[in-house]
Amino acid sequence: MEPTTRVDEPIWIRSLIGWHIVFWVLLAVTVATSFTEEMSSDRRIAYTGVIVVLAAAYQFVGMPAITSRRRVPSYTYRIILIGCLMVLVALYPQSVFLLFITSGHMWLLSERVREGAAFSVLLVIAVGSGQLWNAGWGWDAFWSTLPWMAVSLVVSLLFGIWIERVITQSEQRAELIEQLQSARHELAEAHHTAGVMAERERMAREIHDTLAQGMTSIVMLAQTAAVELQRGGTDGAAARLAAIEDTARENLAEARALVAAFTPVALSGATLTEVLRRQAERFAAETGVDVQVSLDLPDEEVTALPQGQQVVLLRSAQEALANVRKHAGATQVQIRLGLSDDGVWIEISDDGSGFTPGASDAGFGLAAMRGRVEESGGSVQVESSPGRGTRVQVLIPAEDA
Hints:
By secondary structure, the protein is an alpha+beta fold.
């Protein structure tokens, strides 16, 4: 999880610097104006001492408590604050201006509205008591002070409720931001996992369509060469060995291309038409099956096809030929490449033993072909039945061309 930035912090936490500045400014102004008032030396000493106690309490107890929201420091600071302000107002009534900032402290340190209201009442009573003490505790002083105390209490309660709402909303916003960040990281992790799985699947298809088929060809050629050597046919065995070498070299090149994530080696130096015909010739030489390649569109249009489409068409043809080799027992294979209104298509048909398509879908070959084609927005159609051959058609939409 990323560290919390200032933007992610609750707004009341980020605004505390303003509260601190206002407190120290009002305290300094109150001290400065007090020197314009004539006081006895004892009262001056007492007033200065209470100012020092209030400043120390705010610096070492109040400020940390506002941030940490710990109960014991918050209660301790508010009690000290109420006592200090009562004494300051009693010694110098103009100190009442500190009420504007200290009322906010009552609420910043409260966890509930009831708690903030109770401390606000205590603060107003204490300040009023200080004023009454300074005025001599008369009924006239009481009735003149009472309206001011009531107004101060109402303003304090309204201000405190507003502060409580700001704190609550900012905490909810901070929690929401944290949840969104957590969801974003979970989503990014899910995307990464999906990407890894997709890449593994892609590599599995590539290996199946290239290296595995090449190895199958090598095994079949080696077996054929061994039979011919047993029969004394050295010329035929030499041809098979040459074919094994060519296939092994192409497999090695394909493996290097897979590691480097390049385009298939076969398409890097030839057109799709040339590669399909070369694949057909090799397949015929290895299996004895007659393979024909025909184009229903000009060769230059084949060359102009996007590289990604050519790769999908080539891999589909290779997979279809691999299935013919393994299962069909065919004598003829027809590969057709064409262009229609719906897009570019390739069709591979054989006269082999056929199969029931529903029972064959569990095989990796056709599943890999479907996965590759569907990733490019295309579709695969398989038509077959036992004893009547197979036709596989791959269609890539025209809009991807």
